[in-house]
Design goal:
100 residues; mainly alpha; elongated
């Protein structure tokens, strides 16, 4: 098979963990990366799973602030079309609605 080399900078700990998982699944890391690249070409999408990830303190704080803003009515309403959004934006007396 004709092959090309791709050099990628990866944290050594990540590489070791990925090699271990690949091995446990019965694959080489190279074969999994090749399969992933083929999948990107086929589907034209990139998928990541964050199932085991925990949200950062910053994200948690931001979500709580957003929740307070929604409850206080400091958010713009949702619009079904651009004309309604433009009308709302062009009305300077209109305050933020409680719609979300």
């Amino acid at each position: 098979m004709n092959t090309a080399v791709i050099n990628v900078k990866v944290d050594p700990r990540i590489k070791k963990k990925a090699q271990k998982v690949a091995s446990e699944l019965g694959f080489s890391l190279s074969s999994l990366i090749n399969a992933y690249l083929r999948d990107i070409i086929r589907t034209k999408t990139v998928n990541f799973s964050a199932a085991d990830e925990n949200p950062s303190d910053y994200l948690i704080k931001s979500l709580k602030e957003a929740e307070k803003d929604i409850k206080a009515g400091r958010v713009s309403p949702r619009f079904d079309n651009a004309n309604d959004a433009t009308k709302w934006l062009n009305n300077p007396k209109k305050k933020y609605a409680n719609q979300v």
